[in-house]
Amino acid sequence: MPAAASLPNFPTGEADSLFVEDDDGGTLFAGKEGLISIDGFAGDQLIGDVLLVDPGAGRAERLLRSGSAHNTLLVTERCDQLCVMCSQPPKKTHIDRFDHFEKACKLAEPGSVIGITGGEPTLYKPRLLDLIEAVLTERADLEFHVLTNGQHFDQADVPRLRAPLYHRVSWGIPLYCHVLATHDFIVGKQGAFDRLHASFSALMQAGARIELRTVLTSTNLQDLPALSQYVAARLRFVESGSVMQLENIGFAKNRWSDLFVDMRRISPRYPGPSTRPCCMASPSACSTSPGARYRRRIGRWLPPRFLTGNASIRRPAGIAANATCSSAFSSGILMTRPA
Ligand code: SF4
Fold this sequence. Notes:
The chain is of the alpha/beta class. The chain is built from 10 helices and 14 strands. It folds into 2 domains: 8-63 and 309-317 and 327-337, no CATH class; 68-285, Aldolase class I (TIM Barrel). The strands form 3 sheets. The protein has a 9-stranded mixed β-sheet with strand order 6-7-8-9-10-11-14-12-13. The chain has a 3-stranded antiparallel β-sheet with strand order 1-2-3, with no helix packed on it. A two-stranded antiparallel ribbon has the order 4-5. β2 (26-31) and β3 form a beta hairpin. The site of iron/sulfur cluster has 12 residues, from loops.
């Protein structure tokens, strides 16, 4: 939604709306279909954003925020897993809005990364891949990061995912444990571990970029070192790994006392002389390059404090996957419990 001053020849595009005025109650825009009044926001809180406006429902939804290089689209709330700590508990209903999302993505800030999340986006895999391809074909400056439970890729997808534009797509896929039964228990679906590995096989053959994501819970904490060895030995094509804390919403909220592992209580007490600190504890001691490390909690970046949030270790060019994963996961920090 551009400001009037920036649009001398308004309208410049089908989706543009012109800022008219604002006051304490809200903001008025003029769009192709008529006037749009949005309550509760001043003009400078909306100008440049991409909004999905549904006049019939009296609703406006901000899809992309101006000035942000990272926006995430929730494409569905359906999911075929039922993870014990799900922050966005699945719903049964789905409204297909992929066409709107495609238009929105094409209006994204130059050079931005667009997140896709759910629910499970690949329940609508053909629609999702159509969207990705349409956007990346038109916008060579954009990238996608898709959060998926990895249950729906197969060999038939390999030729399509081999297309060069998929180098600008990374897939964030959870693996919670190297033990089949434990992974299946955490995601609430029998057979999920095996199906996930079938997807890994297809994605590996396609050369897909994969970010492995592991949420720590009391159920899988003790298996993390073994998981790291499993990843290093069997999933060497993984580009990066993220070890994440629970979010205190959704299912995790009511199960917090059962699931939450307070890493601050665990790590400082561990005196083991033979252990190597990983970058979760000591960035200066990490063997990866500084540019390869980052640390964030979902939605906002955190200062580099000691184990306060999620920690991620990204594999830099030239460093083998097992070197990075080992330094991240084999630390004694993750193997100890409070005295
Ligand atoms: S956390 Fe699990 S249940 Fe929730 S949306 Fe993701 S895969 Fe589905």
